[in-house]
Every structure is written in C-alpha cells, then in structure tokens.
Amino acid sequence: MGEARIDKWLWAARIYKTRTIAAAACKKGQISLNGNQLKPSRMIKVGDVISVKKPPVTYSFLVKQTIEKRVGAKLIPEVLENVTPPEQYELLEMNRISGFIDRARGTGRPTKKERRSLDEFTAPEFLDDLLFDFDDEEDEE
C-alpha cells in the first residue's frame, strides 16, 4: 500500500481514539505536513513527517508505513517513528509542574488548597478578639 488517507492513518496509528476525532483535528488545522494544514482526505506516503498539535505540545511523527486498518499497540513502532523535538516535551513538563496555578477564571471549582486559602483570606481576623457583652439590665428596664 503506497498511500493512505491522513484521518484513517491517524486513527490506525493510535494517535487519535476515533477516526471522527482525527478528521475533526484536520478540519481545525491541528494536523500539518511541511507547515501546510491538511484536509482529512489528504493522502500521505512513507517518509512524510506529520505534525500534530495537542496543546501545549506539537508532536511530530515520521510515517514508516501507510495503513488504514487499526493495528495493535505493539505494532506501532513499525508504523510510525516519534520525531518530536525535546523542547516540546520540556513544554509539557513545565505545564504539568505549573498545575492549576494559571487556571483561568471560571474554569471549574477551586481545589481544596485554593478553597482553604480563600477561606483564610475572607475570614475576618478581628472576630476572635471581640467580646459580646450583652447587658441584661437594659433589657429589664
């Protein structure tokens, strides 16, 4: 087999879970070949280097075999070679380390740690110092 559709190859090479997701990624412009965005129907051949954007990383894969039928995970090294530069993995590591620090406003519930710091920030400090002295004598008059 000399050529394969890019959406089928991405699915068969287990880069995407379903062919529909692979085709949608092509339509969104997340798949490129030599800097050119690809349509799902674009035919690829052995030796092509495909770039796949999965934010924050852009993975690069060298096509070793063009397939359109899904294969087992153990056979993937025969189908593609991961040629992603190390800088991309450093980006991924930095993103993993930063965690929820840069979380945008309105993107879900606060973590337990964030909630505690919010509670600490909003709790009045002087509340413990106040003594509530109710004068019973004034009420009786």
What does this structure look like?
The chain is an alpha+beta fold. It has a single domain, classed as RNA-binding S4 domain (Structural Genomics Hypothetical 15.5 Kd Protein In mrcA-pckA Intergenic Region, Chain A), CATH 3.10.290. It is 35% helix and 19% strand. The chain has 6 helices and 7 strands; from the N terminus they run βααβββββαβααα. The strands form 2 sheets. The protein has a 5-stranded antiparallel beta sheet with strand order 3-2-5-6-7. A hairpin with a 2-residue loop joins strand 2 (31-33) and strand 3. Helix 1 crosses helix 2 (19-27). The protein is elongated, with a radius of gyration of 28 Å. The termini are far apart.
Offer a concise description of the structure.
By secondary structure, this protein is an alpha+beta fold. Helix content is 35%, strand content 19%. A hairpin with a 2-residue loop joins strand 2 and strand 3.
Secondary structure elements and their pairing?
Blueprint: E1 3-5, H1 6-12, H2 19-27, E2 31-33, E3 36-37, E4 43-45, E5 49-54, E6 57-63, H3 76-79, E7 80-82, H4 86-98, H5 112-122, H6 136-140
Note the main sheet.
5 strands, antiparallel
Kindly report how far apart the N and C termini lie: 102 Å
> Count the helices. How many?
6
Question: What would the average pLDDT be, to the nearest integer?
Answer: 83
N to C succession of SSEs: EHHEEEEEHEHHH
Major sheet: order of its strands?
3-2-5-6-7
| Level-1 CATH class name | Alpha Beta
Per DSSP E runs of 2 or more residues, the count of β-strands stands at: 7
CATH fold group: Structural Genomics Hypothetical 15.5 Kd Protein In mrcA-pckA Intergenic Region, Chain A
> What would you call the structural class?
alpha+beta
- Portion in strands: 15-25%
CATH superfamily: RNA-binding S4 domain
Gross CATH architecture: Roll
User: Judging from the principal axes of the Cα atoms, what is the shape?
Assistant: elongated
Residue windows where pLDDT falls under 50 for at least 5 positions: none
